[in-house]
Amino acid sequence: MTQTDITVIIPTHNRQDTLPDAVNSIFGQTLLPRELILIDDGSSPPVPESVFFGAPANLRVRLLRNERPMGASRTRNRGVKEAAGPWVAFLDDDDVFLPEKLHRISQAIRENPEAELLYHPAKIRFVNEGIEYISNPGSPEPHSGFFRRMLVRNEVGGTSMVVVRKEVLMDAGGFWEDLPALEDYELWLRLVRKGIRFMHLKEPLTKYIYNTKKRSITKSQQAREEALAMIERRYESDYRQLNPDEKNRYAERNLRAYVFKALLNRHPGAAFHWQWRVFAHTKSLKDLGMLLVIPLGIRTVLYLRSVYG
């Protein structure tokens, strides 16, 4: 089995239940990475070396640790600095790479040497509800309008859907470490504005696994609102140039994100509140229908979202 020049970086914090699946999905790649760097961001108890049990003999594995939690951005930035390969792939500790991912990515890199960042759809699976669908990231073409579309909506997706040149990340300064949320979205924005060449692969190569359960949404909502305010200040002049339709779609996108967060955290009351605001914003029959089915249960709503978007 040959290897590729990609370093896989997994940041983890107190995910002892899902981390083994993420790690094993790297071991099971049809084309192994150059190395796997796992960074324990202050987990309690610490992640043991046994997490690498069963690793292929020719795969270099490294376990690093932050003695106190530093957050996802600082942890990923540390991994980038440590990476030996010229390319970096990120994997969250509750997601998995599909077996052909690194093979497909490596093939695309060989065939498109001008590409500097590659991204792809993901299979989205809600474990408790038994629902699965494929995400729909946007295309970077035409490049001249990609930045404006990214201001309105994250056309790329999350970190587990991205493979990028290490030097690109280093030159850009990495993830914004003081941002309390949306750090992946802001980095993609920054890279698009710098003129980095994005490439969209159409095959889903990562599985995002959502385990819906009851938990507080206040903290995550506040973090998102604070992050949006910080991003809007950084790109203030760019947002001012959006036309009224683009600004309207930007506001709608943010409202829908709060609905989704409430559904993930099993708060139907909060989901109803935010969906009402979506309907008041769009006045669409589809959004009215979604509002009316929320009392029927989280599974019904997620199913309809998976079918109709």
Topology:
Elements: E1 6-12, H1 19-27, E2 35-41, E3 60-66, H2 72-82, E4 87-90, E5 95-97, H3 101-111, E6 117-119, E7 122-126, E8 131-134, H4 146-152, E9 162-165, H5 166-172, H6 183-193, E10 198-200, E11 206-210, H7 218-234, H8 236-240, H9 244-264, H10 268-282, H11 285-293, H12 298-308
Parallel strand pairs: 1-2, 1-4, 2-3, 6-10, 7-11
Antiparallel strand pairs: 4-9, 5-11, 6-9, 7-8
Helix pairs in contact: 4-6, 4-9, 9-10, 10-11
Descriptive report:
It is a single chain. By secondary structure, the protein is α/β, with parallel strands linked by helices. The chain folds into two domains: 6-210, Spore Coat Polysaccharide Biosynthesis Protein SpsA, Chain A (Alpha-Beta Complex), CATH 3.90.550.10; 218-308, no CATH class. It contains twelve helices and eleven strands. It has helices at 19-27, 72-82, 101-111, 146-152, 166-172, 183-193, 218-234, 236-240, 244-264, 268-282, 285-293, 298-308, and strands at 6-12, 35-41, 60-66, 87-90, 95-97, 117-119, 122-126, 131-134, 162-165, 198-200, 206-210. A seven-stranded mixed β-sheet has the order 3-2-1-4-9-6-10, sandwiched between helices. The chain has a four-stranded mixed β-sheet with strand order 5-11-7-8. β7 (122-126) and β8 form a beta hairpin. α4 (146-152) crosses α9 (244-264) and α10 (268-282) runs antiparallel to α11 (285-293). The longest helix has 21 residues, at 244-264. It is globular. The mean pLDDT is 94.
